Automatic annotation (TrEMBL):
Protein name (database record): [FeFe] hydrogenase H-cluster radical SAM maturase HydE
Keyword flag Transcription: no
Provenance organism: Thermodesulfovibrio yellowstonii
PANTHER family the record matches: 3-METHYLORNITHINE SYNTHASE, BIOTIN SYNTHASE
Cofactor binding, per record: Binds 1 [4Fe-4S] cluster. The cluster is coordinated with 3 cysteines and an exchangeable S-adenosyl-L-methionine.
Binding site for S-adenosyl-L-methionine: 71, 163, 182
SMART domains: BATS, Elp3
UniProt-annotated binding residues for [4Fe-4S] cluster: 65, 69, 72
Length: 333
């Protein structure tokens, strides 16, 4: 029995004869101290993953988006945003430079941009795979056949956050799709053999601890290979621009609980945490995180991929992060 199962069984036996998973998670959120939960998560992270950190270079290659999510700065109705699309040649060039620097995974991320259909993007994936790196995609909802085309081209992983499992909240915040559709896409990705990642935003207006417990339970039900958890950061050019930032310590506690439930998953210290404070991003590595994704998008585009303010303040070079983690006793991969 690993530490995650031991902790869960111990907690259940001392609190109630029979808990649902959601109830167990809610008890952890409400009744167990931050220090207890994060200490256990860090112990599990060390047991399963050791003291290694995966560095993954992210290229944000288009900020066009057909969707109108209420929380996102690149939503289609943000008329104040200058839009860009990198060319195939630009994307491959940046990926090549990142691979030469030492990155072993390239993450291609964009808004849901119809220009970048599966056929066009698959050409880029094939070129990047020649660099002997893994390729992660984060380009939103596609059809099963489109996911299959990209998988056939060599894509290894796919990130698609569901943001919230609360159907009413999801419908309000993401008017262009449904929660059922989102979950179906994640199941398709698993079926096609992708390492599948998803995640949530903590502190969305209208969210509750009960809905957050359901979010964590859904991540466990999906048996995600990757789980990303970041705080809500309001963007002034969105309908949610007047709301407060999500609670960062609740974010870290949820990260820790998710690590306990998904001991083998890769979990990033999200850019959103780093945007609020570099110290918070590093603290995530003591709450269960084992991945960081430096942004290597060219400077002329980087600040235009503004899903929330302050997103691109952190350093992006492989050598910088290698030294940061060396100084805290971690080894990068």
């Amino acid at each position: 029995m690993n530490k995650a199962e031991s902790f869960k069984n111990s907690f259940l036996s001392t609190n109630c004869d029979k808990f649902s998973l959601k109830t167990w998670i809610l008890r952890l959120l409400k009744d167990v101290s931050f220090e207890t939960v994060t200490k256990m998560a860090d112990s599990i992270r060390r047991e399963i993953h050791g003291d290694t950190v995966h560095l993954r270079a992210i290229i944000e290659f288009s900020n066009y988006c057909k969707c109108n999510c209420l929380f996102c700065g690149i939503r289609r109705e943000n008329r104040k945003l200058s839009r860009y699309r990198m060319s195939e040649e630009e994307i491959v060039k940046v990926a090549k430079e990142a691979a030469e620097e030492g990155f072993k995974t390239i993450v291609l991320q964009s808004g849901e941009d119809p220009f970048w259909n599966a056929e066009r993007l698959s050409k880029v994936v094939r070129e990047i795979k020649k660099l002997n790196v893994a390729v992660t995609l984060s380009v939103g909802e596609l059809s099963y056949d489109e996911y299959a085309v990209l998988r056939e081209a060599g894509a290894d992983r796919y990130l698609l956050k569901f943001e919230t499992s609360d159907e009413k909240l999801f419908k309000r915040l993401k008017p262009d799709t449904t929660l059922d559709r989102r979950i179906q896409c994640l199941r398709w990705l698993k079926e096609l053999g992708y390492e599948t990642g998803s995640g949530i935003i903590v502190g969305l207006p209208g969210q509750s601890l009960e809905s957050l417990a359901a979010d964590i339970a859904l991540m466990k039900e999906l048996e995600l290979d990757m789980a990303g958890i970041g705080p809500f950061i309001p963007h002034p050019e969105t309908p949610l621009g007047i709301y407060p930032v999500g609670d960062v310590f609740l974010t870290l506690k949820i990260l820790a609980i998710t690590r306990i439930l998904l001991p083998r998953a890769n979990m990033p210290a999200t850019t959103a945490l780093g945007s609020l404070s570099p110290d918070l991003r590093l603290k995530a590595f003591y709450c269960g995180a084992n991945v960081i994704m430096p942004d290597v998008t060219p400077e002329r585009y980087k600040n235009l991929y503004e899903i929330y303010p302050g997103k691109n303040q952190s350093k992006s070079s492989y050598s910088y992060w290698k030294n940061v983690f060396k100084n805290v006793g971690r080894k990068v991969l």
